[in-house]
Amino acid sequence: MSKQTLEFHWGKHHRAYVDNLNKQIKGTELEGLQLGDLVKHAYNNGNPTAYFNNAGQAWNHDFFWESLKPGGGKKPTGEVLHLIERDFGSFEAFADEFKQAAATQFGSGWAWLVGIPAGSHGEDKFGKLAIEKTKDAVNPLVLGHYPLLTIDVWEHAYYLDYQNRRPDYISTFIDELISWEAVTARLEQAKATINFYDVKMSSI
Amino acid sequence: MATATCSSILRATPWPSQILSSSPSLRKGNTRSSYRPIMMEFHLRPLPFEMDALEPYMSKQTLEFHWGKHHRTYVDNLNKQIKGTELEGMQLDELLKHGYNNGNPTAYFNNAGQAWNHDFFWESIKPGGGKKPTGEVLHLIERDFGSFEAFVDEFKQAAATQFGSGWAWLVGMPTDPLVENKFGKLAIEKTPNALNPLIPLLTIDVWEHAYYLDYQNRRPDYISTVINELISWEVVTARLERAKATINFYDVVVPDDQYKYK
């Protein structure tokens, strides 16, 4: 991911979302809300307000930059790897499904690794990892899901470096850039709201 | 201003380039009853201009990717999706209406829509284009937007605010003659991703791949340049002529004596 890309992606696109959001909420009762709260508020249960796009994109990009690092990629370890293997079968199966989601998000959007509560029946656990894709500025927070990792698949994220070759961009992201440390930290926080394991009821 | 020639009117309708190829499978020893299934597939139409003809406003490099990769991929993938199905052989615009499925789009809708939209887009621009339209197009623009400048402002606004990927359009649309004093008018619409309107006259592609190499994040600059330097008003004129087959852009004046009871 070139310096030139980041100069535009962070320096122009991300900056514009933040600036425009500030203009939209200035002097309103929304001024002072945390960004995550603003995003959920703005989503307005599927009928997004005027500032949703800017709030969503501002949040998504913060989350995206934190999801990457130099010398990243490779494989996760510890609990993240354990849960990935449990919920996808193998790390390779997870990578395939993630690539597929990111490649098939038509138009602009994002692909995510999320933590979600599992269905109360039919699964032997209370929470699991899953992959989602969203369009434009939407993110899993508005669905009540817990984002752990994201990749930006708006064309501005990869066009200067990869042009139309979105699959190459995605593979490179997975192999070289993901910050599994960030994912691990987010998983820890997710556990405050999602139980990824069984609750063992002791016999009464 | 050169009037539209026959060939440019023909080009104004993006007929899909379908090539009929017959695959003979002769039954042995019986040449009379040879069964020849006809297969049709869409082909990527050549651009109506040279790849460097729109420089410096739209670079050759952009067109190599935009037409040579993106548009080509939509066409190729569409062909794969419809091969061997009953959709094979349908015209592109029929496929589109079929694929839209009344708002519940099928798997091939995105590729069909994007294939059609890009054909329409390449026809909408030309080297040495832009400036102002003349004749009836100008008259209707002034009538329905107030002035050419007001039209330009609204078009730029629509194109700049189509969030994410999509298109902005000048369209003809029927109006309610009881509310407006005419049966049809020009209007501006914007659509996301692969969607397109019913009676389009002009479009601009605002997917990022359309402008990123030349303008990066500066979408408004790209839009202004297309308007000032690239729009083919001849093609818009030709499309307006055809639109009149389905839309009456003027008043129908009913003579008084038709209302008198005999």
UniProtKB/TrEMBL annotation, chain A:
Ranges where the Manganese/iron superoxide dismutase C-terminal domain occurs: 76-186
Keywords for this protein: Chloroplast, Iron, Metal-binding, Oxidoreductase, Plastid
EC primary class: oxidoreductase
Database matches in InterPro entries: Mn/Fe_SOD, Mn/Fe_SOD_BS, Mn/Fe_SOD_C, Mn/Fe_SOD_N, Mn/Fe_SOD_N_sf, SOD_C_sf
Cofactor(s), by name: Fe cation
Gene Ontology CC terms, in alphabetical order: chloroplast nucleoid
Chain residues that bind Mn(2+): H9, H61, D152, H156
Catalytic reaction list: 2 superoxide + 2 H(+) = H2O2 + O2
Domain of life assignment: Eukaryota
Location(s), subcellular: Plastid, Chloroplast
Any one GO MF annotation of this record: metal ion binding
EC number: 1.15.1.1
Record-annotated Manganese/iron superoxide dismutase N-terminal domain positions: 1-68
Annotated function: Destroys radicals which are normally produced within the cells and which are toxic to biological systems.
Family listed: Belongs to the iron/manganese superoxide dismutase family.
PANTHER family assigned: SUPEROXIDE DISMUTASE (PTHR42769), SUPEROXIDE DISMUTASE [FE] 2, CHLOROPLASTIC (PTHR42769:SF3)
Protein's recorded name: Superoxide dismutase
Organism the protein comes from: Ceratopteris richardii
TrEMBL record, chain B:
Assigned EC number: 1.15.1.1
Reported cofactor(s): Fe cation
Residue ranges constituting the Manganese/iron superoxide dismutase N-terminal domain according to the UniProt record: 41-125
UniProt cross-references to Gene3D superfamilies, sorted A to Z: Fe,Mn superoxide dismutase (SOD) domain (1.10.287.990), Iron/manganese superoxide dismutase, C-terminal domain (3.55.40.20)
Gene Ontology cellular component annotations, sorted alphabetically: chloroplast nucleoid
One Pfam family, short name: Sod_Fe_N
Residue ranges constituting the Manganese/iron superoxide dismutase C-terminal domain according to the UniProt record: 133-239
Annotated Mn(2+) binding sites: H66, H118, D205, H209
Top EC group: oxidoreductase
Keyword field: Iron, Metal-binding, Oxidoreductase
TM region positions: none
Keyword Secreted: no
Family: Belongs to the iron/manganese superoxide dismutase family.
Protein name: superoxide dismutase
